[in-house]
Amino acid sequence: MSNYDIVIVGGGLVGNSLALALSHSSLRIAVIEAIDYEQKQDHADDNRAIGLSYTSERILQKLGVWPHLENKAHPIDSIHISLQGRFGVARVLAEEQGLPSLGCNIDIYYLQKILAQNVRAQETLTYYAPYQLTHCERVQDRWQLTLTAGESQKKISARLLVAADGSDSWVRRTVGIQAQVWDYEQSAVVAHLTLNRSLNNRAYERFTQQGLMAVLPTGNNTATFIWSTTHPQAQEAQSGSEEALLSIVQKAWGYRLGRLQKMGKPVIYPLRRLHAHEVYREGVVLIGNAAQTLHPVAAQGFNLGLRGAMVLAEVLQSAQRMGRDYAETAILAEYADKQAGDRKQIAHFTHFLVNRFSLEKQGYSHWQPLALGGLEWIPGAKSLLARLGLGGGQKALWV
Ligand SMILES: Cc1cc2nc3c(=O)[nH]c(=O)nc-3n(C[C@H](O)[C@H](O)[C@H](O)COP(=O)(O)OP(=O)(O)OC[C@H]3O[C@@H](n4cnc5c(N)ncnc54)[C@H](O)[C@@H]3O)c2cc1C
Fold it and tell me: Which of 52, 289, 294 has most ligand 1 atoms within 8 Å of its beta carbon, as the pocket-test mutant?
């Protein structure tokens, strides 16, 4: 049996980022991941583009993965937010915020693959993929773990278990941590879009009567289209024709984006918010979507999860440097305290946007344009949006 100091369950975006952040420590680290991202060949089942904040870009630089991602990322220099059929418009510009860019957009397929390849390449990390954690048991101060891949099983042990296993976290449920869930009764429809002109590094968000639509540039005249809408409308968008969906989108935007030319096959993601009541227990700590899952309206789920992972890496390494026990509950509490403000602020900000703007609600519609007008004219309002939404609510320890 192999014994580790820390085992990270879930080598998705957040788990693998944490592993890379810890790869230069003297801790023995393993990652368990059910999906073989290195061998994955296409994007058909998950066609999302992830909007990375400028802070996240810098974190990925520190982790050494940015040179492999840079040529796959498309910069976002400005965001244009509008309401269908209303005057309220807000523009958030990188130069006004004193930033070289507001961030970038990258296909999740490359992000997952390149992170997995980098974790595998680190001699200091052990990467069990594709393996699923199927059993865990606390024996004295260690976790005894069983990993399964088809007929094959492995037994390993860990002092500290990090749950980075996503929204439905098996670890969170197994250790009995409760989570509050808000079902938005919405799905996101995501598809590749081709336009007849360049978006000039500008991302667009529009609050329409059918829900929020966003168009995020991925190339010269290509973009990712995301539409948060009701489940029936999402099903219809997926099962209907390309022409029918193009026509809905063109109608919602007019010709602000130029003429829409092609729409790829849409993929649907049911949307909900989740908030774990605790982010640690004895010998276990939660990060990323396992700790909190957000609506994608503000493109914050991974950005927040990444900052949380960097806070955890810093706290664990600093405990190690000071000769303290990294798995001690007081150390895990320090992580929870340091990340609590960011977690709360971003979750509330995102929830606010969903509740007030996403689907037109009676009684709110009259002040929606005022809210966007305010964003444009109230001094500091846009910086707040840029800071909360794009730069990160809390200055990351790593950048
Ligand atoms: C439509 C949509 C658009 C989005 N856009 C953005 C955006 O623009 N910007 C942004 O910041 N965020 C965005 N997000 C959110 C972002 O995708 C998530 O926050 C992020 O993927 C969470 O990463 P994670 O590693 O915590 O979880 P996941 O990505 O869910 O990874 C969890 C991993 O754990 C593995 N796993 C699970 N159980 C086990 C087990 N028992 N054993 C082994 N492995 C296991 C899974 O295979 C998976 O790889 C979006 C989300 C949606 C739905």
Answer: 289
